[in-house]
Write a structure and sequence with these properties.
The chain is α/β, with parallel strands linked by helices. It has helices spanning about 15-25, 60-65, 95-100, 110-125, 220-225, 230-240, 290-305, 315-345, 355-370, 370-380; strands at about 5-10, 35, 55, 75, 80-85, 90-95, 105-110, 130-135, 145-150, 165-180, 185-195, 195-200, 210-215, 245-260, 265-270, 270-275, 280. About 35% of the residues lie in helices and about 30% in strands. The radius of gyration is 21 Å and the shape is globular. Bound molecules: flavin-adenine dinucleotide.
């Protein structure tokens, strides 16, 4: 069997792998890159795929705009209301107090994925040495060698074939599209219940069709998945309350297991891990993909500089050094985002009385101490630089 040689191989054609390929080629069109994608070549096969609503930050929008990969079907968030079920403490964040056009944007995973595929196809036209291989996961492994291997295989907690450091929150997220009676437009709701966070987020379908993410123990989430529509809506109403009127319909219910899984070392010799292949987070703070896109962007920047140099400068040592510099540059953002998400996932699930009281006080503090609120919102919108 003949061996194909590349400068860079990117394993994984999810949002992070696609974005990394697109930014690398945009910065250095001559780059000799192979993207190994397990998804089919035809977009039609992906249109019914993962429809869950994902919150992208303004920082991610700015990054995706650079490659024309911002989906048209998107709902902005202008206000976020945070509360805890049956306890004191609430906070409201608005775009006005943060001086932003929007606090975030909600887009279906599949739209982010499809828009990035379209953006990469456009960039591919000017990239003579780029190969996009659609591989069959059941076929023999292709004989490909590369000077640098980028792992962007992603995956969900408990489906990944690597476990390093982290935590099993023993929680699942039930997601779906819910129709309500009377929701204020462009407002997101995050409510902390005894079993975990329950988020109701805007959607591009209009003010009364919202994305639901309801975290609970695996057994109660399974039970909720199996409930009839009427019983499901009744139990959702009881947890959420009547702030947005009656819950009228639920569609497309799906379940995801949640946990934290992260690599302490994201590089090893000529290999580097980005996106969910480097860290898989609880969705409570909506940070996983935002962090993964920042990984992809900064790695593309480093790799395009290195691989645009003359051949004799792309030595194994130069590659290892570049990857080590990349890892160092990601340290602060990774640790802050992983730490904040883990803290929120744990603190907002505990029912210990001191924690419940502390949580109420923290929400009140957030409400009454604008600098704290602004600092938290900025971390979530742009990450740590
Ligand atoms: C319920 C839920 C809600 C979420 N909400 C948010 C949110 O609001 N905001 C946010 O920022 N993040 C959110 N996330 C996290 C976000 O979905 C992930 O961080 C993001 O999908 C990671 O992208 P990725 O490309 O790294 O991995 P993936 O999306 O998993 O894509 C990886 C791709 O690689 C392919 N692949 C796997 N193995 C191989 C291989 N060996 N060779 C080639 N290809 C391979 C897979 O088929 C897949 O297409 C949420 C996650 C969940 C579960």
């Amino acid at each position: 069997m003949s061996v194909e040689n590349f400068d860079i191989v990117i394993q994984g054609g999810g949002p992070v792998g696609l974005a990394c390929a697109a930014w690398s080629l945009q910065k250095f069109p001559e780059a000799n890159i192979a993207l190994m994608d397990r998804n089919p070549a035809d977009d039609v096969d992906l249109t019914a795929a993962d429809t869950r609503g994902v919150a992208l930050s303004h920082g991610s929008k700015l990054l995706l705009d650079t490659i024309n990969a911002w989906p048209t079907e998107c709902a902005d968030i202008h206000r976020v209301h945070v509360s805890q079920a049956g306890r004191f403490g609430r906070a409201l964040m608005t775009r006005e107090e943060l001086g932003q056009k929007a606090l975030g944007h909600i887009i279906r995973y599949r739209d982010i994925h499809l828009t990035l595929r379209k953006a990469l196809r456009a960039i591919q036209k000017n990239s003579p040495h780029f190969i996009w291989k659609h591989i069959d996961p059941n076929a023999d492994v292709e004989n490909i060698q590369a000077k640098c291997v980028v792992h962007a295989e992603g995956g969900l907690f408990k489906t990944q074939d690597w476990v390093e450091s982290g935590r099993d929150y023993e929680q699942s997220a039930l997601v779906g599209l819910v129709e309500v009676e009377n929701a204020p437009p462009l407002q997101a709701w995050e409510r902390f219940t005894s079993e975990g966070p329950l988020a109701v987020l805007p959607s591009h379908y209009g003010p009364n069709i919202l994305n639901l993410i309801w975290c609970g123990t695996p057994s109660s989430s399974q039970a909720r998945l199996a409930l009839s529509e009427a019983d499901f809506l009744k139990s959702l109403q009881a947890e959420f309350g009547s702030r947005i009127g009656q819950f009228l319909k639920i569609q497309d219910r799906r379940l995801y297991e949640l946990g934290l899984n992260y690599r302490k070392d994201i590089t090893q010799a000529n290999e580097v891990w980005i996106g969910n292949a480097a860290q898989t987070l609880h969705p409570v703070a909506g940070q996983g993909l935002n962090l993964g896109l920042r990984d992809a962007y900064l790695l593309a920047e480093k790799l395009s500089i290195l691989f645009s140099k003359p051949e004799d400068q792309k030595t194994p040592l130069a590659i290892e050094t570049t990857l080590a510099e990349y890892a160092q540059s990601r340290k602060l953002d990774r640790s802050a985002t992983i730490g904040l998400t883990d803290f929120m996932a744990r603190i907002f699930t505990s029912n210990l009385l001191p924690v419940v009281i502390g949580r109420g006080l923290a929400l009140s503090a957030l409400q009454w101490l604008p600098p704290v609120k602004t600092a938290l919102a900025r971390q979530m919108m742009f990450g740590r630089r």
